[in-house]
Design goal:
This protein is α/β, with parallel strands linked by helices. The chain has eleven helices and 17 strands. About 30% of the residues lie in helices and about 25% in strands. Pfam families: GFO_IDH_MocA, GFO_IDH_MocA_C3.
């Protein structure tokens, strides 16, 4: 443990908070300092169930965490409809903000959160864990190898899981319009769109189109949907290349976390891009320079499996990176705007998909 770890206050006891509280505990530069829920009893139960140290402060309201001068940063896994209120308040109280995704119901709300963060000089980061796994920069290294991979041409992302219990399909916050009105698009769809934009170095597409056949529950919340993103080739020599991406996300299909990225000379495939099958390592397949053999009886090159070892779980790596940035700010550095830019662009595409759905799946120009 570092001499001066970043002290986290956890606001909300959602299921995902169990994973992140564990991650904070495993981090060398962070500690869980306080936990808050809407009742003291619920916060106390969370602390006991997750074996948090007896020294952790237990609060029966979110305000108490934000008023605690010893809390450096807050992790906020509240329903999306509550983000704009509590995230802005956290920023005004000078608390650095690790905010669960989706970050807001729309870009306008996120802009308010980011403006409050900027005005108060606090670090913002959303809770996308896979970006912090050591496999991720290894893949980016290959994507940028113009000889082995070539020019990026297409991306396909699928993020689905199925929980048939009434407790999820009827009562989970992700299927209730008053809590998380974005439904599956904001939940696992966030990962699909985020992976696509990450592969394009955060370039927004020219056109976004929702795919026909979205599925909604009786309350109108999206349970399954898809979309396509298109980048048009620029006229100038240094402009972006023409490329296309598609995604599909669902609460109604078996677990599938596929990501495939195709270039003019290479292909990258992952089967577990959001949550690796194992904590200790993660793999992906890479094929470069493949052609068909004579008479198309086979391939000249077989996909190569590349394994990347992870010293800590990806959520711990996320916490450590966030805490490092906060520590830098405490020593005079400015917040890293990269993370707010990532979140903003994902939110912009989500808004465009929703607009396309409202228009009957027509193209939306960006």
């Amino acid at each position: 443990m570092d001499e001066n770890p970043i002290r986290f206050g956890i606001i909300g006891c959602a299921q995902i908070a169990r994973k992140v509280s564990r991650a904070i505990g495993l981090s060398h530069n962070s500690t869980v300092y306080a936990v808050a829920s809407r009742s003291f009893e619920k916060a106390k139960k969370f602390a006991l169930d997750n074996k948090l140290p007896d020294s952790v402060k237990i609060y029966g309201s979110y305000d108490e965490v934000l008023e605690d001068p010893n809390v450096d940063a807050v992790y906020m896994p509240l329903p999306t409809s509550l983000h704009v209120r509590w995230a802005i308040l956290a920023a005004t109280k000078k608390k650095h903000l690790l905010l669960e995704k989706p970050t807001a119901l729309n870009t306008s709300e996120l802009d308010q959160i980011l403006e409050a963060s900027r005005l108060n000089g606090v670090q913002f980061m959303d809770g996308t864990m896979w970006l912090h796994h050591p496999r991720t920069p290894k893949i980016k290294e290959l994507l940028e190898d113009t000889k082995l991979f070539g020019k990026l041409k297409s991306i396909h992302s699928t993020c689905t899981f199925y929980n048939e219990t009434p407790a999820f399909l009827e009562n989970n916050i992700r299927v209730k319009p008053e809590l998380d009105a974005l439904g599956v698009l904001g939940d696992v769809g966030w990962y699909c769109i985020g992976a696509i934009l990450w592969a394009t170095n955060n370039q927004l597409p020219n056109t976004v189109t929702a795919l026909p056949g979205p599925i909604r529950n009786e309350s109108g919340v999206l349970m399954a949907c898809g979309g396509s993103l298109t980048w048009l080739a620029g006229k100038e020599e240094n402009d972006q290349e023409e490329k296309v991406a598609t995604f599909y996300c669902s609460f109604l299909s078996n677990v599938c976390l596929d990501l495939s990225i195709h270039g003019t000379n290479g292909t990258i495939r992952l089967k577990d891009h959001i949550i690796p099958c194992k904590e200790s390592s993660a793999s992906f397949e890479f094929t470069s320079g493949a052609h068909f053999t004579e008479l198309h009886l086979g391939w000249t090159v077989e996909p190569k499996k590349i394994e990347v070892v992870s010293e800590v779980p990806q959520e711990t790596a996320m916490v450590q990176e966030f805490a490092r940035l906060v520590g830098n700010i405490n020593h005079g550095s400015c917040p890293d705007d990269k993370w707010s830019e990532n979140s903003t662009n994902i939110q912009i595409v989500i808004d465009a998909i929703n607009k396309s759905l409202d228009l009957g799946c027509k193209n939306v120009d960006m």
